Structures are given as structure tokens and as C-alpha cells.
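@channel anyone free to eyeball this complex?
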Amino acid sequence: EPEVTQTPSHQVTQMGQEVILRCVPISNHLYFYWYRQILGQKVEFLVSFYNNEISEKSEIFDDQFSVERPDGSNFTLKIRSTKLEDSAMYFCASSGTGGFAIDTQYFGPGTRLTVL
Amino acid sequence: AQTVTQSQPEMSVQEAETVTLSCTYDTSESNYYLFWYKQPPSRQMILVIRQEAYKQQNATENRFSVNFQKAAKSFSLKISDSQLGDTAMYFCALFSGGGADGLTFGKGTHLIIQP
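replying in thread with the prediction:
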């Protein structure tokens, strides 16, 4: 069964450093997403990406965040200058082969980001 | 803005019992989808069940079923014959609009299945 994969599983970084979180969505899916979950809290939407551009973003997704689909398979989230409060689990998700199948989002296993 | 509310932070039941997790939501959209996701200790988000708002029939997936009350904006999850492996956080989520919309999640219910 196809699945979303994410690397690394755990990333430790120093405050102010740049990090790139990587995701490989399910092939032939059209929509890609990043979510964040601070420990003990609910999952929060960050950004969605479709047709090689951002479709929607939340208030959390400020100028320090960026997303990119550098090739036909990877989808990345970059945090330019990490802050302590960026420590969280980051989930990538994908959905949609078109038509009526656009609604169910399948999640990757997450990347735990720890900012020291 | 749309919201999802889960009023039960934690529930505990004995193995083999039936348990119901509550969820209410609010949206101004007429076309939307509702989901339950399970998050075990590994923290991976696993889809449990989905419901299309335009369907009157409640969705079922093996031991999992939902009670979808559209007028009341209620979407509860029933787990029958609960198993130890069902121990996890359960999140209710709402999706509306086009394919690029993000999911709106509730705060989750921590379900503990006791042996």
C-alpha cells in the first residue's frame, strides 16, 4: 500500500539555524500539506501546495517558513531561522488523484524537531 | 472560521467493551467531510474512518462506526469490541471546500483500553 514518507524522523538543531524537513508524498497525489503538532496540543495546519504553488497557508506559516517541490517526488518544508517555539512534530500529508478523491489526506510518520 | 470540539480529554474502558468518542463541529460550508484519525504512541496519524456530509448513511469500518447527526453538527465515533491496540489519541477532523484546504482538528481524546 502506498504511503507518505518523511525524513529525518528526528532533527535536533540550535536556535537560529535553518532546517529542511523532507517528505515523499504518495505518487500521483496532487495536493500536499504540512501540519505541526506541539507536544500535548492539537494538530495545526500550516500550508497546502498544489500545482507547484502555495494554495493556502495559516497564520503560523510566516516568512520564516517556505515550501518547495524540488523534483517530481519530494516536498520540503524549510524553516529559515529556528526558534525554541518551533519545537514540534511536523507532519506531511498528501491527497487527491483528482475527481472525488481529493478529500482524504494521508499522513506521513512525522519529523520530530527539537530546537535547543 | 470552522471549529472542531472534542469535549472528552480522556476515556478509559475495559477490553472488549464498546466506547463512544464525541465530536461536534461548526462550518458554514454545505459540502464537507469529517474524519477520525488515530494517533498511537508512535505519533503517526492513521486514518480510521471518513464521512461525507452529503451522505445520510453512517460510515462503518469493521469495528469502527460513526453516528453522524448533520443538523446537530455532531460526529461521534463508536469502537466496538475494543482491543488493547486501540489505545491512542483520537482526533476528529473537518475538511471543507476545495482540495487544497487544510484539515481542522479537534484537541483529541486520549483513549485507554484496560486489560
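from a first look: Chain A has no helices and eleven strands.
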